[in-house]
Design brief:
Jelly Rolls, alpha+beta, metal-binding, seven-stranded antiparallel beta sheet, 4 helices
C-alpha cells in the first residue's frame, strides 16, 4: 500500500497557533488616549413669524407662552386716517430715565391712558382717564375680538429708524400674573423681536436661546398671553435703513395697589 504523505515542517508550523510559533515576532499593543470631541454649540438662527395664526412658543412650569398674529386687523384705508389722527392728537412726550446715576431720554415718545398710574423702569406715568375717542373705539374693537377686557393703554411713537425699545418683559407687579398685552401697530413696518429667557443653568447667558422675528405691518394686531411675559423678552431694535413714523398701541389691564401689595 502506498505510504501516507509526510507533512512538511512548513505545513506543521503553519498549523500551529501563532503564540506557539517560535519565529513569530513579539509585538506589543500601544494604547493611545483620544480626548473626546467637545459638542459644538451653535447660535440658533432666529425664526420668522409673518403669517396669521395662533403660535404656541413654549411650554414649561410657568405655563404656555402663546401669541396671536392678526395682520390687517385694521384695513389699510381705515389705518391710514387713524394713523394721521393719532399722530396729531395724542399728547406725545419723552420720558427721562436714570440708570447708574446717569440720566438719558427714551429713544421714542410715549403717552399713557388709564385711571391708574403705571410704573416701569423706575418711571411712573400718572393717571390719565381722558381717553381719545378713537382709542376708545379701538379698545372696544380689540376687546370684542379677543374676549379680554383692558383698562389701560401705553402709546409709543417711533419717529424714525433710530427710535427703539430695548429687551424687556411686561412683567411689572401691577400687571398681575400672566398678563395679556394687545399690541396694535400703525405706520411704518418695524421688526418685533422675541427671545426666550435662559434656563438657570445658563446663568443669564442669552447666547443660545431661541429667538423670533415678527414684522409688524400697518394695521397689524399682536396679542401676547399666557406665560409669554414670564418666559420671554421682546424689543423693537434700531434699524440701519430709513424708516418713517410708527405708532404702537399696547392695551393692557392694570390692577390697583392695596396695602402695598398689587392685587
Amino acid at each position: 500500500a502506498p505510504k501516507a504523505p509526510v507533512a512538511s515542517s512548513l505545513a506543521l508550523a503553519s498549523a500551529r497557533p501563532a503564540w506557539r510559533q517560535k519565529d513569530q515576532p513579539h509585538t506589543q499593543k500601544q494604547f493611545v488616549f483620544e480626548k473626546p470631541s467637545e459638542v459644538e454649540r451653535r447660535v440658533p438662527e432666529a425664526g420668522v413669524i409673518d403669517k396669521p395664526g395662533v403660535y404656541e412658543l413654549s411650554k414649561g412650569p410657568t405655563g404656555i407662552s402663546r401669541i396671536h398674529l392678526i395682520p390687517g386687523f385694521i384695513d389699510s384705508e381705515q389705518a391710514d386716517w387713524m394713523f394721521e389722527q393719532l399722530l396729531q392728537d395724542i399728547p406725545w412726550g419723552q420720558r427721562t430715565h436714570i440708570r447708574q446715576e446717569v440720566s438719558f431720554e427714551e429713544p421714542r415718545l410715549t403717552s399713557w391712558y388709564g385711571e391708574l398710574p403705571y410704573t416701569y423702569s423706575r418711571v411712573t406715568m400718572q393717571p390719565n382717564p381722558n381717553w381719545h375717542p378713537l382709542l376708545t373705539v379701538l379698545k372696544e374693537r380689540i376687546e370684542e375680538f379677543t374676549g379680554y377686557t383692558f383698562n389701560s393703554l401705553l402709546c409709543n411713537l417711533y419717529r424714525n429708524e433710530k427710535d427703539s425699545v430695548d429687551w424687556h418683559s411686561d412683567s411689572e407687579p401691577s400687571l398681575g400674573k400672566n398678563p395679556v398685552i394687545a399690541s396694535l401697530s400703525f405706520g411704518a413696518t418695524r421688526t418685533f423681536e422675541m427671545r426666550k429667557k435662559p434656563s438657570p443653568e445658563e446663568d443669564g447667558d442669552y447666547t443660545y436661546v431661541e429667538r423670533l422675528r415678527i414684522p409688524l405691518d400697518h394695521g397689524t394686531l399682536l396679542v401676547m398671553e399666557g406665560a409669554t411675559q414670564e418666559d420671554w423678552q421682546h424689543r423693537v431694535p434700531k434699524e440701519y435703513h430709513s424708516r418713517d413714523e410708527r405708532i404702537n398701541l399696547t392695551f393692557r389691564i392694570i390692577y390697583p395697589e392695596s396695602d402695598g401689595v398689587w392685587k
